[in-house]
Each structure stands twice: as structure tokens, then as C-alpha cells.
Amino acid sequence: MFTSRKTDSPKQLIEYVWLGGSAWDLRGKTRVLSKPVEKLEDISEWNFDGSSTELATTENSEIVLKPVRMINDPFRGQPHKIVLCDTYFPDGRPTSSNFRELASRIYKDSVVDQADIWFGVEQEYILCKEETSGVISKKSHYVPAAWTEFPKKPQGDYYCGVGSGKALYRNVPEEHLQACLKAGLDIAGINAEVFPGQWEYQLGICKGLDTADQLWLSRYLLYRVCESHGLIPVFDPKPVEGDWNGSGCHVNISTKATRDANSDRLGPIKKYMELMSASHTKDIECYGENNALRLTGKHETSSLEKFSWGVGSRGASVRIPFSTEKNLTSYFEDRRPAANMDPYLVCAKIADTLYLSSKNSEVFSKTIEEYKKARAALVQH
Ligand code: ADP
Ligand code: MN
Ligand code: MN
Ligand code: MN
């Protein structure tokens, strides 16, 4: 009989998770450790074949995975872990989809560090099914799952809906909530949204760059939960044209200045509004692809071209809650980011706009442009 020398040693499973050639290309693979580890620092780097995920050419295919954030694996249970990694070429250069590298440079700036920016994110998504055309194609085509199973009723009953035919696929957000809690993520709530089969979860309050790591991990868990229901979470900002809501990812922001302001929280916030107004076009570049289709000024959105803000306004780019005007809370809400935004870009650009006089705007534009070029080239390769 075969016996392993290692049968007595405890085993720990580490799921390495990373973003492939496009920021929305989540990938993962498992490593079995015979000596369990507890700390992120003890998780070793790994590598993968970048040519299979549109990150590298076949001739130069090795990509290095560097662990950046560890959570409990809610699917496998204790002592197993999930580890988010960012990606580098062997010579140390970040890959084209590694926006985390840029974000961490911004957050290392002492001015940004001292501003102590906190975020609360509202992630919306629509549950879809993959259309099976029988043709092998790189492009997937998704249909809202609700329309494959339920009568096509207009919007109105679904937002925070209760009951069959209204709260569609509730098991999914519910299981996702439990998974996030078991994993140790700072999930703060869930609600059904306006489009049939659309849901939202709130993440945070989280600090600075950790918001972005947590958001990617929470998205990963959502994909995994959906796998077992035969569903796909779609983050497209406007999957269905016409009188149907799209999906956003509102980002609620507070800083040491807004939290410390005793009587006049609007003071620092008004200064931020001037800075955001001046940087609007550059900021929007970082707020997700195809966002123009969503930011029409209808369906509780603002105009793409023009920055606006207002107390209590859900049609403005930025809403200042009444509670903040009354000094009961200290945050404001940037409603512009699309559901498919990369939080590394958004959290970093907000810091750049509010605290670094937007001096990195061109770096952001160039990084996004290079990423799009690299993606197009590698898809063709
Ligand atoms: P709505 O749907 O009305 O826009 P939500 O309740 O969905 O509001 O989201 C409000 C978000 O604001 C939550 O994610 C919460 O964590 C966040 N938030 C509350 N206080 C702060 C704060 N001081 N800094 C940053 N975010 C905050
Ligand atoms: Mn909300
Ligand atoms: Mn919402
Ligand atoms: Mn909101």
C-alpha cells in the first residue's frame, strides 16, 4: 500500500487569486501546504503561465504572483485561506493590469497617508446567465437571468423587494453575505436593486487602499457563490438599453478633515468639490468602462460631461447626505463610478484629486492607455 511520509503533517489549502490580462479576468489556483501558515508574510510568491490569461506572450510567459491580502477561505473552512496577489514580470515590472502598483505608490505619499481617507463602497451587479449559441467564441454573451425565468415586468417592484417574483435569486446575495463575513471582509449590508435580479452590497467603512483589496476579494467570492447557482454576476454599467437601470458603484468618502470638523463639515467638503469639479474629465477616465451609457442624467444618475454636487441630490455627481450637512455624519458620496470600476484606480485617483492637486492625472491616463493597448495586442496574439 502507498504511504506518504507526510500523512501526519497538517495540510492547509491556499487559493492564490489574481487579475489576469484584463482587470475583470479573475483567476485562481490552489497550493497545498504541509506546514500551515497564519501570516501573509509567510505566504511565498508563486507564478503562473501568463500566456493563458492574456498577460504575456508564449515566449515570455512567466508571471510572478506577489501576495498582498489574505482572508479565510469561507468555502473550504478553517484553516484554509484565500490570498489576493498582484502580478509582475520576472524583471520586476508590474503587468499591464496591475493597477495596484500605481495605487500603492499614491497611498505611500505622506500627504495622502495623513489625510486618512476612508471609503464605503456600494457594489451593484445584475445576475445573468450565459447565452449558449453553440459557437466557440471568445466573446461571452449574457442575458439577465430573470428574463429566462420570469415574466418581463417593468421596474418598480424589485428595489428592496420582498416575495416571489420580486426578490429574485435572493439566495445568492444571502450566501455571498455569509461568505464575506466568514472570510473576515468588512461587508456592511445588502439590498435588492431596481433592475430585476439586480442586487447591491455595501463594503466598508475601509481605510485607503485596503478598500480596493477587499472589494476585489468580495467580487471574487461573489463569482464563486454564483458558480454553484449557474449564474454570473455582471458588472456592466448599462447592460440593457432603455428604461432599465444600470449598475453603479457609489463610493462614500470621508477624511480626517471631514471627521474632525466639529461644526462645519461642509467647509472641507466644499473645497473637495472644487477640486473634483476641476478634475472631472480626468477622474471619469478612471471610473469604469462604458460609463457614458449609464451616466445619462436619468435613472438616478448625473451627466457625464458636467460635474455637479448637492445636499441630498441623487441626480448629482456627488451627493452630500443631509446627515452630513447636519454634522451627524462626516462623509459624501461620489455617485459617478460604474459597477465595473477598478477600485485601485478609483481609490487612488480620489486621493490624487483631493490631496495631490491631480498631479498624477497623466500617469493614470497613460497607465490605462497602456493597459488597453497591451490587452488588445495580447488578445490578438
Ligand atoms: P445609499 O444607498 O443611500 O446611497 P448606502 O447605505 O447603500 O446608502 O451606503 C452608504 C455607505 O456610506 C455605506 O457603505 C457606509 O459604509 C458608508 N459610510 C458611512 N459613513 C462613512 C464614513 N465616515 N466614511 C466613508 N464611508 C462612510
Ligand atoms: Mn446603496
Ligand atoms: Mn444602489
Ligand atoms: Mn448610494
Described by the principal axes of the CA atoms, the overall outline is globular
| Gap between N and C termini | 48 Å
Number of helices: 11
Q: What is the oligomeric state here?
A: single chain
Helix content: 25-40%
Spans of at least 5 consecutive residues whose pLDDT stays below 50 are: none
| Beta-strand residue fraction | 15-25%
Q: Describe the biggest sheet?
A: 9 strands, mixed
Strands, total number: 14
What is the residue-averaged pLDDT?
91
**Radius of gyration, rounded?**
21 Å
Which ligands are bound? adenosine-5'-diphosphate, manganese (II) ion
Q: What is the SS-derived class?
A: alpha+beta
SSE order = EEEEEHHEEHHEEHEEHHHEEHEHH
List keywords for this structure.
381 residues, alpha+beta, nine-stranded mixed sheet, five-stranded mixed sheet, 11 helices, binds adenosine-5'-diphosphate
Question: What do these coordinates show?
Answer:
This protein has helices at residues 99-108, 110-115, 146-149, 171-183, 210-227, 256-260, 266-278, 280-285, 322-325, 343-355, 361-380; strands spanning 12-19, 26-33, 46-49, 62-72, 81-88, 118-130, 142-144, 187-192, 198-207, 232-234, 249-254, 309-311, 318-320, 332-334. With 381 residues, it is an alpha+beta fold. The strands form 2 sheets. Strands 6, 7, 8, 9, 10, 11, 12, 13 and 14 form a 9-stranded mixed sheet that branches. Strand 1 (12-19) and strand 2 (26-33) form a beta hairpin. Helix 1 (99-108) runs parallel beside helix 10 (343-355) and helix 4 packs across helix 5 (210-227). The longest helix has 20 residues, at 361-380. It is globular, with a radius of gyration of 21 Å. The mean pLDDT is 91. The structure holds adenosine-5'-diphosphate and manganese (II) ion (MN) (3 copies). Residues 122, 124, 193, 200 line the site of one manganese (II) ion.
